[in-house]
Design brief:
By secondary structure, this protein is mainly β.
Length: about 300
């Protein structure tokens, strides 16, 4: 997990870079704070036989807070570029799933999300104020909006680190190889893929509404979805590995966390579907997460 000092240090560093980059040659330069909610959709809690259920199966009761900073540079009357740094947390539990078989699987996780993104905003529809923007010298310089709707898309980089809740403690999952990552078959030279990367790229996209409270003070509502390229936000993707083999290489706790159905039932008929080489997750699609945000921004004048 990330410590508070590490989070603040990274936020400050990235905020400084964004401030310098976007404030150059901007028609309108906005800085602001954001807060809101983080949600996740992936393998845990979800019916693996139904790809279209990802929105329906979001566990909204596990919504976690998000917060961060952003810098927006308006380059024309309809387009802006924006840098954002957002911290949130995602989590899910099989035991509260609507599907009985998933409840028996009994996996869970939580993970911090620290995201740095660069996007282009495009105004879709808005209303222009009846008066032009007045600069510090009292001179009307250009028209400004009273409010507008916008869409955005771009590229982001984020870090995550899934942990499991077990016996009152939280255990980092990636080093435990819960799907046999990094293990080799003792009877052949075939080895499973190595551990997944905890720093990844994504494609942020979404919609928002921006309202100018004054010529300088702005409030924004935004919802955004992240297209990721990993199925391991939750440490679940493919098939069960032999828990004894995992325990031999990574320790007893790793073996126990790889298959937790035995904590729920001892029925051999039910346990048949949770044996080695049986489906553990759904690797046909990647995991994703969402931010629902409210932003307060301030327009700053600069003379270079």
């Amino acid at each position: 997990m990330y410590g508070r000092k590490e989070i603040l240090k990274l936020l400050f560093m990235m905020a400084s870079l964004g401030f310098l980059f976007l404030s150059v040659s901007a028609q309108e330069f906005e800085i602001g704070l954001l807060g809101g909610a983080t949600n996740y959709s992936g393998d845990i809690g979800r019916d693996p036989s139904n790809e279209s259920s990802f929105l329906r199966d979001i566990q909204y009761q596990l919504t976690k807070p998000a917060y961060g900073v952003y810098f927006r540079s308006q380059r024309s009357m309809i387009k802006s570029v924006r840098l954002s740094i957002i911290y949130g947390e995602i989590s899910a539990y099989d035991k509260i799933s609507r599907y009985p078989a998933i409840r028996v699987r009994n996996l869970n996780f939580k993970s911090p999300i620290l995201e740095y993104s660069f996007v282009i905003e495009r105004i879709l529809k808005g209303k222009i104020k009846p008066h032009a923007y007045i600069n510090k010298k009292g001179i009307p310089v250009r028209e400004i909006y009273q409010y507008y709707f916008y869409g955005y898309a771009g590229i982001g980089m984020y870090t995550f680190d899934p942990h499991a809740d077990y016996n009152g403690g939280w255990y980092e999952l990636r080093p435990l190889g819960t799907e046999g990552q990094g293990l080799c078959d003792p009877y052949s030279d075939i080895c499973k893929t190595d551990h997944y990367y905890l720093t990844q790229f994504n494609i942020p996209m979404g919609l928002g509404f921006k309202y100018y409270l004054t010529d300088r003070l702005i409030i924004t509502g935004e919802i955004g979805w992240r297209k990721t390229f990993t199925d391991y936000l939750d440490d679940v993707s493919g098939y069960y590995a032999d828990p004894d083999h995992i325990a031999n290489d990574y320790g007893a706790t790793a073996g126990l966390l790889s298959n937790r159905s035995v904590e729920v039932t001892q029925d051999p008929v039910q346990l048949e579907r949770y044996q080695p080489d049986m489906q553990r997750g759904d690797n046909r699609s990647t995991d994703t997460y969402f931010f629902t945000l409210v932003k307060i921004g301030y327009i700053v004048d600069y003379v270079w």
